[in-house]
Design brief:
Structural class: mainly alpha
Helix content: 55-70%
Distance between the termini: 21 Å
Order of helices and strands: HHHH
Length: about 90
């Protein structure tokens, strides 16, 4: 797993949400990140309405960064691997 200092600030912001939000909101953020990082890019934008407003702002900044080409293929692959590990940890903690 990469250190957070290895990520652009827009990515660090959403990764911090995984740890700071209530479990339901963190899972929504996690699903969004995994979908964006996946090669098919099938992100569910309706999840924005379900997020707390502060989280919505951070995810929105990340999404704008992503759409502007902020992550290359290697960056998306690393984010996808990071999210796979996060989901495994979530599953084990239940």
């Amino acid at each position: 797993m990469r250190s957070k200092t290895d990520w652009p600030p827009e990515v660090v912001g959403v990764l911090d949400l995984l740890e700071s939000q209530p479990p339901e909101a963190a899972m929504l953020v996690g699903c969004f990140l995994a979908a964006v990082a996946h090669p098919d890019h099938v992100a569910e934008l309706a999840m924005f309405d379900k997020l707390p407003s502060a989280a919505r702002m951070v995810v929105g900044r990340f999404f704008s960064f992503f759409l502007a080409g902020g992550l290359d293929d290697a960056g998306r692959e690393k984010l996808h691997s990071h999210m796979q590990a996060w989901f495994v940890r979530q599953r084990r903690s239940r």
